[in-house]
Amino acid sequence: MTRAVLSLGANLGDRLAHLRAAVRSLGPGLVRVSGVYETPPWGDSAQPSYLNAVVLMDDPAATARDWLTRAQACERAEGRVRDPDRRFGPRTLDVDVIAVWDGDRPVLDDDPELTLPHPRAHLRAFVLAPWLAVDPDAELPGHGPIAALLDTPGPAADLAGVRSRPELSLESME
Ligand SMILES: Nc1ncnc2c1ncn2[C@@H]1O[C@H](COP(=O)(O)OP(=O)(O)OP(=O)(O)O)[C@@H](O)[C@H]1O
Ligand SMILES: Nc1nc2c(c(=O)[nH]1)N=C(CO)CN2
């Protein structure tokens, strides 16, 4: 049985529509959806700002690898095109697997195809802030409480630019 935290990001096209499509297609197993946040681009500043959110998932049948398969299927469905020359460049939809638990045990893996926890999650206010809002006691395996991570220099500096967009809810999409 696995639980997973996935992060969603979009900065091209109809950003909200891409996030909504991801939430809809992740469907069964969705436990909680964060609010939507407007965030400055991280890692490559010459691109539009992002909408970011985090979802908490739980599916007794899913392996850790299944979460990556589902994440990548969502990205493909939203027409994501990878630019090999821009590692952190713009995209219609990015779905990252932030962390996975098998029962109470965190899944740790240094496989480049699926590194767990996500190797840059602890540095990203655009992941930590939405996650904290839906699970204040959460811990990122190997790094500790996410509330404390948001107090570390990189995320703390970036947090000032992270803005809640309550009018852009992902929860009631009918
Ligand atoms: N935890 C993870 N979540 C998503 N992809 C991962 C993870 N660990 C490794 N990968 C691998 O990373 C590769 C590149 O993924 P992607 O293009 O989404 O990266 P990115 O979004 O540009 O950068 P970042 O992973 O820093 O957000 C994928 O082929 C995937 O197999
Ligand atoms: N604010 C923000 N910046 C990013 C994001 C993202 O989702 N949000 N995703 C990236 C992909 O690696 C690179 N930079």
TrEMBL record:
Top-level taxon of origin: Bacteria
Keyword ATP-binding annotated: yes
Catalytic activity: 6-hydroxymethyl-7,8-dihydropterin + ATP = (7,8-dihydropterin-6-yl)methyl diphosphate + AMP + H(+)
SUPFAM superfamilies xrefs: 6-hydroxymethyl-7,8-dihydropterin pyrophosphokinase, HPPK
EC number: 2.7.6.3
Pfam family, one: HPPK
Pathway this chain belongs to: Cofactor biosynthesis; tetrahydrofolate biosynthesis; 2-amino-4-hydroxy-6-hydroxymethyl-7,8-dihydropteridine diphosphate from 7,8-dihydroneopterin triphosphate: step 4/4
Keywords in alphabetical order: ATP-binding, Folate biosynthesis, Kinase, Nucleotide-binding, Transferase
Residue intervals of the 7,8-dihydro-6-hydroxymethylpterin-pyrophosphokinase domain: 87-98
CDD domains on file: HPPK
Top EC category: transferase
Protein name: 2-amino-4-hydroxy-6-hydroxymethyldihydropteridine diphosphokinase
